[in-house]
Amino acid sequence: MDELINKRVKEVLHGNQEAFEEIVIHFQHRLYQVCYRMLNNAAEAEDIAQEAFVRAYVNLETYDQKRKFSTWLYRIATNLCIDRIRKKKPDYYLDATVPGTEGLDMYSQIATDHQLPEEEVEKMEMKDRVQYEVNRLPDKYRTIIILRYMEDLQLQEIADILEMPLGTVKTRVHRGREALRQQMGSM
Amino acid sequence: MEKCPKHVVHYMHAFLDGEITNEEEQIMNEHLKLCEECREIFEELEQTVTLFKGVDVVEAPAGFVDGVTARLPKQMIKKGPNKWFRQHPFMVAAAMFLLLMSASFFSSFENEQQFSFTKQPNIVVEGETVVVPAGETVVGDLVVKNGDLRIEGEVDGNVTVIKGSKYMASTAVITGSSEEINEIFDWLWYKMKSVAKDIIPASKEQKLENE
């Protein structure tokens, strides 16, 4: 598979734009999923995942063909997501009502760090709950947990994507897992 | 309650990462049998992992690929040649030189509208027509540009008419070669031949010897 992808990459570099479409088709779901899990918003996930492919296309010459293409692609996508999350943080719509509450606006949420009331959490469907808990993780654990468990990547691959030492990735997986366990404690 | 060894938690995570050794696993299991608290933590961790691993796969919405294609910049296609240009500056310089040279060459063919001819003592010019009168003999080559040539007498040499017509009376005699040039490729060929003649005078001398 990797060989086929690298063949397509070469074709794109020789000016064949259609070969890039095959790359997009091959990776679209995986990349979209990472973005969706990171951003927790379908429209934003689509925007960022598409942007990641565009960046990959534009910077294709800088891709080192001795390495795995998917690693490089994941790196672009996760970096874009992290940037988006950082930019997004300060601009919650403070006047917006919190879903599922009567007249509670976001002002009431500032102190509690974007947490929903416990009874709301307990009423959630499990798949929503999982997404919700992932989003409550600190940034540095969230990316790693998503790549490890939702994308099912090996620790070494995650280290390559995030350009971190393997030891750091392991520690963060441990801490992230422990944090999730505690968050899920009320199951 | 006995104090749990710290490394047991470490073993749990190693186990979950699939990086535990048999020995470590044995130690961990021994401990979990004895310690209810650790067993609970371990079970919770396993549950959490199972839950997160088992979450539904999310798929990109329909039209995602088209969306990417629409957002791709169009100028990327130029990138290939650009790269080539950077790698072969000499070839680019040579190509530019040829391009500019040929441009000036072709424009000289298109733009040279002036009527001109080789000066010979016994020819007559009528408007834009050069006439070699009957009974006269022109010694040497005769070139007419942007005009016509009418030969009634004799030409002892080569005759060339560029962008014009050549009329021969029944009495006309040309001892050398004769050609009419109206197309760009004829012109090119003519230029090349004349350049070659200039460069290699030997061919001319040979001709003289033959004569």
TrEMBL record, chain A:
PROSITE patterns assigned: SIGMA70_ECF
Protein name as catalogued: RNA polymerase sigma factor
Domain RNA polymerase sigma factor 70 region 4 type: 129-180
Keywords of this entry: DNA-binding, Sigma factor, Transcription, Transcription regulation
Domain RNA polymerase sigma-70 region: 26-89
Organism of provenance: Sporosarcina ureae
Similarity comment text for this entry: Belongs to the sigma-70 factor family. ECF subfamily.
InterPro entries: RNA_pol_sigma-70-like, RNA_pol_sigma-70_dom, RNA_pol_sigma-W_bacilli, RNA_pol_sigma70_ECF_CS, RNA_pol_sigma70_r2, RNA_pol_sigma70_r4_t2, RNA_pol_sigma_r2, RNA_pol_sigma_r3/r4-like
TrEMBL record, chain B:
UniProt cross-references to Pfam families, sorted A to Z: zf-HC2
Domain Putative zinc-finger: 6-39
Superkingdom of this protein's organism: Bacteria
Transmembrane segments: 88-109
Keyword Transmembrane: yes
Key words of the record: Membrane, Transmembrane, Transmembrane helix
Record keyword NAD present: no
Family that this chain belongs to: Belongs to the zinc-associated anti-sigma factor (ZAS) superfamily. Anti-sigma-W factor family.
Name of this chain's protein: Anti-sigma-W factor RsiW
UniProt source species: Sporosarcina ureae
